[in-house]
Amino acid sequence: MGGVPRRWLPPGYAASGVRAVRVTLVAAAGFYLFLYGFGSSVAATYALFSAVALAGLSRIPGTGPQRAATVLRLVPACWLLVVAGTFLSVRTWSAVAGMLVIGFVLAFAAVGGPRLAGAGPGLQLLYMLPSFPPYDPGSLGVRLAGTTAGLALLVLAERYLFPEPAPPPYRELAARAADAAAHCARELAEPPYALSAAAAERAREAGTGLRSLKVPEADRPAGPGARDRALTHTGLAARTLLGRLSALHDPGQSAGEVLRGVALLSERTAGRLRLRADTGPGDAYRELAAARARLAAVPAGPAGPAALRRDAAVLEVADAALTTATAASLAVGGPVVADRVQPGRFWYARTPAVLLWWHRIRGHAVRRSVFFQNAVRIGLALAAARLVAGLDTLPHGFWATLAALSLTRTTVGETWSTIRIALAGTFAGALLTAGLLTVVGPHTAVYAVVLPLWMLFAFTVGPVRGVGGRRGCSRCWWPWCSRSWRRRPGSWPRYGWPTC
Hints:
Blueprint: H1 4-8, H2 14-37, H3 41-57, H4 64-88, H5 92-108, H6 114-128, H7 140-160, H8 170-189, H9 197-209, H10 226-246, H11 256-273, H12 282-297, H13 305-331, H14 353-364, H15 370-390, H16 397-411, H17 416-440, H18 444-461, H19 466-482
Helix pairs in contact: 2-3, 2-7, 2-18, 3-6, 3-7, 4-6, 4-7, 5-6, 5-15, 6-16, 8-9, 8-10, 8-11, 9-10, 10-13, 11-12, 11-13, 12-13, 15-16, 16-17, 16-19, 17-19, 18-19
C-alpha cells in the first residue's frame, strides 16, 4: 500500500506526497468528524491542529512506527500544553510569559536528540492555539478531546498507513562492524598475516556505515541516557578497532594469540548486540585481557624498534576490542562489571539518568551553545509576536504568531539570504490566501470542500520547492480551516480567527 501514492507522483514529490496524503487524511478525518458529526467546532479545530502540528509543522525523523511511538510518548506533553495555554490566556501578560518560557524550553529540548528537536515546533503550536482569547476553561474538556482524537488518528496513520521500509538499527550496524572486525582479526592471525582486499573493503564499509551522517536521524544514539551514550561509545570503539586492524601489517606469529582473542570477543560482541542468548563477553573477555597482559609483559630484549611498534599496535587492537565489548554490553542493558568499567572511560555507566540529563543540559546552557542561542531567539520571537497580537494592534494575531513560529524554524540554521527567501515566500503565501478569501467570500461550503485539497497541495509542493516554497505553502492553508464553518459567538479568539 505504501507504493500507491508514489506511483502517482513525480519522483521528486514522492516522499512529500506520501506524507501529505497521510497528514491530510488524518486532519480532515478529525476535523469533519467533530464539526459535522458532533457539531463541535472547538474539538474539530484541536483535532486538525494536533495532527498538523506533529505531522506537518514538525519533522519527527524515522519510519512510520518510529514516528508513531514518538507521538504516543508526547501525548501527555500535548495535554499539558493545551491545559497551560487555556489557563494562561486569562491575561495578555500571562500568555506572553508562557510563550516565552514554553517557547524557550521546547526549543532547548532539542539537546535531547533529533526526535525532540523535530517535535519542538509542533508542540509550540499546541500551546499557542489555546493561549489566545477567549479565556474559556469550561471548554478545556472539549479541547483535550479534540487533541486526543487527532493524536490517536495520527498514531494509527503513522503506524499502518503507507508503511515504509525500515533501515537497519544502529545496533545492527555496530554488530556488522564487530563481525567485520572478527573476520579481519582471523586473517591477520594466520599466514600470510595480511588482510585480503575483500576484508579490507568490508572493514572500510562497516566503519563508514557507523558515521553519523550515514545513519538516519531517528537511529542515531544521540540521547543523554546511559544506553544511548554506550551505543555511541560502541560505534566509536568499533570504528577505532576496524581502523587499527586495517593499519596492522604483518603482525607475525607472536600476535596470533591476541588476534584470535580479538576475533572471538568481536563475535561475542556482535551476538550481544543482536540480543542473542548466551553471547555475553564472559570468558572471551577474560581470555583476551590475559593474552594482552602476556604480550605487554614480554621483555624488549634484543627486539628492534620495528618489533616494538608492531607489538604496540597489536595492544591497541586488543584495547579497542575490549572497549567495544564493554560498551556494547552496557548499550543492551548488561551488568556493570567493576573490573571492566573504568571510571574515566565509562563514567556514565553508574550515573543516574537524571544526572545524565543534567550534565547534557548544563553543557549547553551557555551563550556559545547553538541550542541555547536558538532557544533564546525562538522564545523571544514568539513572545514578541504574542505581545503585539494581544495589544489589539493586529486583527489576526494567531496567524501572525504562527507565521513567526514558521519563520523561526528557518532562521535558526540558515543564512540571511535564505531568510529573505523565506520571508518572500511567507508574504507571497499570505497575499495569495488573502486574494482567494476575497474571491470566495462567505461561502463556507467552498472552504469545507477545498480545505483538504489545499492542504494536500501545500504539504506536497512546499517541502520540495525550497525554503520559500515551504513557508509560502504552509502560510496558505492556515486560514482556510477557520472559514469552513460559520462563526459562533464567543467560540473563537477575539483577534485570532477571521470571521465569516
